Automatic annotation (TrEMBL), chain A:
Its main location: mitochondrion. The lineage of its organism: Eukaryota, Metazoa, Cnidaria, Anthozoa, Hexacorallia. The C-terminus is required for mitochondrial localization, while the N-terminus is necessary for mitochondrial fission. TPR repeats lie at residues 65-98. It comes from Desmophyllum pertusum. GO terms for cellular component: mitochondrial outer membrane; peroxisomal membrane. This is Mitochondrial fission 1 protein. It is a single-pass membrane protein. The chain crosses the membrane at residues 117-142. GO terms for biological process: autophagy of mitochondrion; mitochondrial fission; mitochondrial fragmentation involved in apoptotic process; peroxisome fission.
From TrEMBL, chain B:
It comes from Desmophyllum pertusum. It catalyses: GTP + H2O = GDP + phosphate + H(+). Gene3D superfamilies: P-loop containing nucleotide triphosphate hydrolases (3.40.50.300). It is a lipid-anchor. GO terms for cellular component: cytosol; early endosome membrane; phagocytic vesicle; recycling endosome; trans-Golgi network. Residues 192-212 are annotated as: Disordered. Its main location: cytoplasm. The lineage of its organism: Eukaryota, Metazoa, Cnidaria, Anthozoa, Hexacorallia. Its cofactor is Mg(2+). Residues 199-212 have a biased composition (Polar residues). The keyword Hydrolase applies. PANTHER family: DRAB11-RELATED (PTHR47979). NCBIfam families: small_GTP (TIGR00231). Keywords: Acetylation, Cytoplasmic vesicle, Endosome, Golgi apparatus, GTP-binding, Hydrolase, Lipoprotein, Membrane, Methylation, Nucleotide-binding, Prenylation, Protein transport, Transport. This is Ras-related protein Rab-14.
Length: 145, 217
């Protein structure tokens, strides 16, 4: 799924956020929109900033589920799957039937499983490599004799 | 034969679905892609995405549909999805007049944020709830005509006219491509042409030719 956001959009939301910040109070809508843009970024620092902004919002109010969803998405993009799961779990506590929440959670657990397998694969490969090296050393020694 | 290659469709059309909260945007999409009615569907978070391959004049077209959240607080962020839409489905609920009254604001967004050739289809959803009707067919029809929109009433619940709304939009877009009013090379036309392998040209003419050949078989 391609999720594109133009640089102009990001800039517009950023300017609005900074302007309100300078005045002293940032409205939750402005903070939300800017955070949403940041989470769509490819840059890890931006994503993290977006997550933090949303966490600042999600302490109160009925809009929690939206914040929880995007925080989970942000953590997912940062490869922090355990944190991501914490937030999808909270979302699904509020709305157990939320299909978007369920799908995101499946994506996260799927990735965790895959990473587990990849980890094993790397271990296996390393063992092979070491085994091969040991055999070579053995051969070298054998040749000397 | 003509459909073999890396893609089994020759075009991608991007759609967006817009309108007030609770008018049934996600249910319309679900009915169109899954042919099922989703009861008690929670409000969409941000945007959702659906696809389906359809056929118009013998051409396979992949519809890429972005379903936006209707909540006011998402309005700012969902606006960034309008860009590059070839079709916009603008939905209201025939049993809630307020959703109809807000159409002009949705239409303003759609006009400002899409290209002039974007096909806008107005859908009066929940036609199955005729007893609770709050907006007449005639007045919505008039609104559509005044604003140059395609229009129908539909029901995501029974499936009535849902197929037609999505397909008629595609037909109109395809017609715009054929008569040249929609320039595929223009940025943000909302249409991507996927040339099929084994054929030298990606021109429409070639495609039509191939299609005619296929039909003759």
């Amino acid at each position: 799924m391609e999720e594109t956001i133009s640089k102009e959009d990001v800039k517009r939301f950023e300017e609005q956020y900074n302007a309100e910040l300078e005045k002293g109070t940032v409205s939750s809508d402005t903070q939300f929109s800017y955070a949403w843009c940041l989470i769509r970024s490819d840059n890890k620092n931006d994503i993290l900033k977006g997550v933090l902004l949303l966490q600042g919002l999600c302490h109160s109010g009925a809009d929690q589920r939206d914040y929880l969803y995007f925080i989970a998405e942000g953590y997912y993009k940062l490869n922090e799957y355990k944190s991501a799961l914490r937030y999808t779990n909270r979302l699904l506590q509020i709305e157990p039937q939320n299909q978007q929440g369920v799908e995101l959670q499946e994506k996260i657990t799927g990735q965790m499983k895959k990473d587990g397998l990849i980890g094993l694969g790397i271990l296996g490969g390393t063992a092979l490599l070491f085994g091969g090296a040991a055999a070579l050393v053995g051969l070298a020694f054998a040749g000397r004799k | 034969m003509a459909a073999t290659g890396p893609y089994n469709y020759s075009y991608i059309f991007k759609y967006i679905i817009i309108g007030d909260m609770g008018v049934g945007k996600s249910c319309l999409l679900h009915q169109f892609t899954e042919k099922k009615f989703m009861a008690d569907c929670p409000h969409t978070i941000g945007v959702e995405f659906g696809t389906r391959i359809i056929e118009v004049s013998g051409q396979k077209i992949k519809l890429q549909i972005w379903d936006t959240a209707g909540q006011e607080r998402f309005r700012a962020v969902t606006r960034s999805y309008y860009r590059g839409a070839a079709g916009a489905l603008m939905v209201y609920d025939i049993t809630r007049r307020s959703t109809y009254n807000h159409l002009s604001s949705w239409l303003t967004d759609a006009r400002n944020l899409t290209n002039p050739n974007t096909v806008i289809f107005l859908i009066g959803n929940k036609s199955d709830l005729d007893a609770q009707r709050d907006v007449t067919y005639e007045e919505a029809k008039q609104f559509a005509e005044e604003n140059g929109l395609l229009y129908c009433e539909a029901s995501a619940k029974t499936g009535e006219n849902v197929e037609d709304a999505f397909l008629d939009t595609a037909k109109k877009i395809y017609q715009n491509i054929q008569d040249g009013s929609l320039d595929l090379n223009a940025a943000e036309s909302g249409v991507q042409h996927k040339p099929l392998t084994g054929r030298p040209s990606n021109s429409l003419h070639t495609d039509q030719q191939a299609n005619q050949d296929k039909c003759a078989c």
